[in-house]
Amino acid sequence: MNMTGYKAIRVTEGAVRARRVSWGKHSLRAVLYLILMAGSVAMIVPFLWMISTSLKSSNEMYMFPPIWIPKQILWANYSYMFQNAPWGLYFFNTVKITLFVIIGQLVTSSMGAYAFARLRFPGRDAMFLMFLGTMMIPYQVTMIPIFKIIKLLGWLDTHYALIIPGLFSAFGTFLLRQFMLTIPKELEQSAMIDGCGYPRIFWHVILPNTKPALTTLAIFAFMGTWNDFLAPLIYINSDQLKTLSLGLATFQGTYTNQWSYLMAGAVIVTMPVLIMYACAQRYFVEGITMTGLKE
Length: 295
What we know:
Blueprint: H1 3-54, H2 58-61, H3 76-83, H4 87-118, H5 124-133, H6 139-153, H7 160-163, H8 170-180, H9 185-193, H10 198-206, H11 211-226, H12 230-235, H13 244-254, H14 259-279, H15 281-290
């Protein structure tokens, strides 16, 4: 066999091998997509069922096989729910507490992260490790000491008990600190040459470049505060100070068998979180992927 035949055989074998590799990659990708699709369906089905149940009558809820689309959509379930509980007040209380916590965490975490990431001072790394160590302590351990402190301050049955402890976040400081480490130092050096001090560098250089991480922290703070149930349950007694999660629990205790009303309340509590995440999804993904790329 001449050299031309050998070359043709090698080319053919190489093409077959390349096809096998390509087919294997496509098959693996297809399997991964199927797994992701199955996981997405498993997560979205309960939410769709919650919306469907909130619009059903009491007879349709217990029908078998289940009915996904109600024969008669009952928007009256939502109006009935608002008539029997002060959901507008619960919503206002939750929004107020959440806004204060988000603003507080963005301010305190960004300042602390800037100090730990860009400034040099004695004991910085040891202090940062001690600060991170607070993340290892479960909330159940600190719950009683925090309760006693809040009681001594006279903050029981007030929104101060829900706002003040949430203004500081070790996780938020860690998240922003890791992101700030990815910002080139040349930007700071250029600002210093132009006569900027640390406050102006922090405000005009660091913060504008930290928007994705700030948005990510805002989403985490929003979700944690909006969905918080344990803290309002411990500190809040007055009905006019309750949040949405605590109000939903109270509503559930009153209308245990009225699942359409309970699902309507769950939709109202859940919908703002979904809207928040949908609007800031791009910044959330960017903040997560860029955090921790540089030490």
